[in-house]
Design brief:
The protein is mostly helical. It has 13 helices and 3 strands. It folds into 3 domains: 69 residues, Orthogonal Bundle (Multidrug-efflux Transporter Regulator, Chain: A, Domain 2), CATH 1.10.1660; 45 residues; 117 residues, Antibiotic binding domain of TipA-like multidrug resistance regulators (Globin-like), CATH 1.10.490.50. The termini are far apart.
């Protein structure tokens, strides 16, 4: 069984033009083309489209998506990993919805706020186990204590700084400058300065392996799609990794 391009566009919430573009760049080929020139898609093609749309949700650009699809050929394994992530996000959003609904009910009712219930689903500690596994319990404890001491305004300023840094990295990567260029190295300097401000990391600890930490982070940005998405996808993450590596070799 297969479906026409118009049917798939409607079902998937996209457009025929988008699907034709995916075909033109080799990202998603139709399973067959009819005598009238219409494109048709079978089950495996739909699976490929589902993966493309899931990766788009992570913020990856089309070149990065193509690289992921070429590298991760075990479709079941790839979708299973993505399903795990979606399940975590679903749980987090469900808890956020419940906490906001409770706040609304409280505001309409007796006005007795329950602080312990108002921020369920907003917990930054969801990555606690992963951080402790990578860098140790002391590193997590120090950064967690630092974050909790910050005011709401300070947290927002920190988030704005991170977002601006990520945007500048993406712009530099898309402009085509080299990782060892003045522009890229200035971004690398800003990146390391940002890391130095986070307690618990080797960049903030005296005698820490700053060089190894910075270069290791660069490799992680490329390897983990969650981090790569912050830099426009894998291609952008590779640019960040290479620029950080050059900076580390010269300055750390």
């Amino acid at each position: 069984m297969d479906w026409s391009i118009q049917e798939i566009a409607k079902i998937a919430g996209t457009t025929s033009r988008t699907l034709r573009h995916y075909d033109d760049i080799g990202l998603l080929k139709p399973s067959r083309t009819g005598h009238n020139g219409y494109r048709y898609y079978d089950g495996p093609a739909l699976v490929q489209l589902q993966r493309i749309l899931l990766l788009r949700e992570l913020g990856l650009g089309l070149p990065a998506i193509a690289e992921v699809l070429d590298r991760e050929t075990d479709t079941v394994k790839a979708l299973s990993s993505h399903l795990d992530w979606l399940a975590q996000e679903q749980d987090r959003l469900t808890r956020q919805i419940a906490s906001v609904r409770q706040t609304i009910d409280t505001m309409k009712g007796d006005g007795k706020y329950m602080a312990q219930n108002m921020f369920d689903g907003f917990d930054h500690t969801q990555y606690k186990d992963e951080v402790e596994e990578r860098w140790g319990k002391d590193a997590y404890a120090a950064s967690d204590s630092w974050w909790r001491r910050m005011s709401a305004e300070e947290k927002q300023q920190w988030k704005d700084r991170v977002q601006k840094l990520g945007t500048d990295w993406i712009s530099a990567a898309e402009s085509g400058v080299a990782p060892d260029s003045t522009e890229a190295q200035d971004l690398a300097r800003r990146h390391v300065e940002w890391l130095r401000g986070i307690p618990g990391t080797p960049t903030a600890a005296p005698g820490g392996d700053i060089k190894g930490y910075v270069t290791g982070l660069g490799e992680m940005y490329v390897a983990d799609p969650r981090f790569a998405a912050n830099y426009g996808g894998e291609t952008g993450a590779i640019f960040v990794r290479d620029a950080l590596r050059v900076y580390a070799e010269k300055n750390l």
